[in-house]
Structures are given as structure tokens and as C-alpha cells.
Amino acid sequence: MKTLRVFLLLFCATTLAFAGDNEFRGVVHAIEGHYGVRHMHIPLLGFALFFVRPEGVSGLKLAVFEDFHGPTAPEDVSRVVESSLGAGWYPFIRVHSKNDGNDDGETTLIYANPSGGKLRMMIVNVEPSEATVVELKLSEHAIKQWLKEPGEKAEDQSAHRRHHADD
Amino acid sequence: MKIKTRTNATLWLVVLLALPMLARAQDVKIPPDVEKLSARAKETVEVTMDGPMLRWASKFLSAEDPEEAKCAKLVANLKGIYVRSFEFDKDGAYSAAEVEALRSQFRSPAWSRVVGVRSERDGDNVDIFFKLENDKMAGIVIISAEARELTFVNIVGPLEVEQLADLGGEFGIPKLNPKDLSKSSSKAQRGDRR
Questions:
Q1: Chain A contact set for B44 (CB, 8 A)
Q2: Residue range of the domain that includes B139
Q3: DSSP type of residue A98
Q4: Among the ranges given (B13-17, B66-70, B133-137), the one the predictor scored with the smallest mean pLDDT
Q5: Which H/E stretch holds residue B84?
Q6: Which helix (H) or strand (E) holds B81?
């Protein structure tokens, strides 16, 4: 019974954290409104993200859109995302890979919100059939790694996310 | 008469409001020729770090590490770092004439080319241009062209040639050989142009 109470408490805490983040929800709603898609409901996602997260990352939030059929050109996606991000968010990295010469490839946009010793990142990844929105906070060590090799880290992030999607 | 005065006042107001925008437009971060290349690239990576991001980022470079401490001092004074890197799926996806047209944009009196490396064997070409304002370095452009990769870096703000080596390897800027830069630096100070 005690385990169940702890479980429920943690689940509620992570769900409340999700509800409190207007910017993350703003980006998710902007994508839903613009492309006519709904993000998937993943049971116990908040609970799972609390325990399973990459090193140096906290406050992880994730929304996945399946059956996404919108244009994936970086200009289209950035227009939608930037319309919902508030002041303090800066465009940081943009990666676009083409699918065998096809313009509708994969786009990853990363926006950064630096404040004090923390860096919040909003990562939007769009593919011809799927899209994801991730918000995370980086530790000091992780920030240093991102600043050293931003392009490589963005590509890693994209590949890491692809690997999980394939599983 | 009153209407004319009001129209003139409105016109002046519009001109005054537009001036800062015009000044910003002249300070080109990424030339349109570079942006066009992304249409043909298999993969495009863009890194944008404006002033506020750079000032914040400089705090994360360690004061205890002498290399990082030098870099932090430098970065805090910069106005922006803009990197565009294109990867192509075959040789010849972009022409030598296109790169030459890009280089020619930095052959104005405000710019000096201080490094020009040509490798016949690998086909790797690197050019570094410096912008001078009131006899002080005000910006650096690096154009690195390989058979299947093209990288354009624009660093806006005060920076010395030797300091470029300190920035190499950070913020997506390619690592540069300090020996090449110091040789080029002395040439730049003598006013040599290649």
C-alpha cells in the first residue's frame, strides 16, 4: 500500500509539472492546431520520464505525434514553433536532413532558454510521418558538452530519438 | 497646411524607426548565397549564437582551465557566432564558381583575406577574412570548402587573429592551426592582401 502511495505521489508530481509548463504545452498545441494532429496519450509517461532520462538532463517532457503528414521544411516548422515560444527563447541549432534527395526529410530545431546556471532546451523533431517535442533542463556538465560541439550533439539527439522510435 | 506638416512628421517618424532596421540589414550574418546551398545539401546544420546567448555561455567556460578562461573572455565581447555546415551526397554538388562568388563578397575594402589554403590533393580549401573597423578587428568569416562539405562561419565582434585558435573547437567552430594564424596575423598587420 505504501508503495502504491509513493507511486501515485510521484505520478501526480510529474503530471503537475507537465501541466505547469505553458511553453511546452504552447508548442504542442501550436503543432496540433497547425498540422491537424493530436499528440499520443502514453500511459504513465511522466512517471517513466522521471526515472529514465539521459545523464545531465532533468525536467524532461515529451510529446509524440504519429500519423504526422505536414511539410517538414525547417522554415515551416520554425514559423509554427516560434509563434508559440515566449521571450527568452533563442534559436540555437537547426538540422535538416533530406530523404534520398526528397525535400521532405527530417528537421530538428533546438531553442535555448538560458537563465542563471540553467539551460532549458525545446527540441522539435519533425519527420514525414512522425513528430516529437521534447523539453529538458541541462546540468552544467551537459551545457559544456553542448556548447563545445553543438552540431554533433544535435545530430546525436536526433539519432538517439530515431533509435528509440525504431524500438 | 496642417495635414502636410502631420504627413512630414509621420514620414520622419517612419524613417527614424526604420534606421536601426536598415543598420541591422547591412550587417549580414549569413549571405543569401550560403542559404541557397541548403537546397542541394543532404544535411544542413545551422548554429546560431547571438550576443545574450554568448554572454551567458561564457560563464560556463572554466576560469581554472587557462584555455577555457581565454575563450570565455573573448566570447563575452562577441556579438554573435553563426555557423552553417552543408554536407552533400556527391562530389560537384556545388561549383567552384559558387564558392568564388561567396569569397568575392568579402573582397571589399572593409575586409582582408588573411588565410588562403588550397590543397590540390584533397580539394580542401580554407579562406579566412577579417573585417576592420577603425583599425580594429570587427569580425571574421571562415569559408571551408571540401569535395562534399562546405562550412561557413561568421564571428561578429572584436577578435584578434591569434585568438581565433582559442575559439577553434568551441561552439561548432572548426579547429585551426595556431602556426598558420600567427603567420597570417603578421601579414595582416603589415597590410598584405592575398
A1: 74, 94-97
A2: 29-190
A3: E
A4: B13-17
A5: strand B80-87
A6: strand B80-87
- Taking the C-alpha atoms of residue A92 and residue A109, their distance in angstroms, rounded to an integer, is 8
pLDDT of residue A89 exceeding 60, the answer is yes
Question: Crossing angle of helices A150-166/A140-148, nearest 10°?
Answer: 110
The C-alpha of B174 sits at a distance from chain A's nearest C-alpha, in angstroms, of 10
Its ipTM equals 0.71
By CB neighbour count within 10 A (0-12 exposed, 13-18 middle, 19+ buried), where does A122 fall? buried
3-class secondary structure per residue, B14-49: HHHHHHHHHHHHHCCCCCHHHHHHCCCCCEEEEEEE
Provide the number of structural domains found in chain B.
1
> How many whole angstroms separate alpha carbon B140 and alpha carbon B82?
11
On whether residue B1 sits in a domain, the answer given is no
CB contact under 8 A, A150 and B42: no
For residue A75, the model assigns a pLDDT of 86
HSE-CB of A18 using CA atoms within 13 angstroms: 19
Rounded to 10 degrees, what is the CA torsion of B124, B130, B131, B137?
150
Which chain B residues contact residue A149 at CB under 8 A? 172
The torsion angle over the Cα atoms of residues A155, B81, A122 and A54, rounded to 10 degrees, is: 50
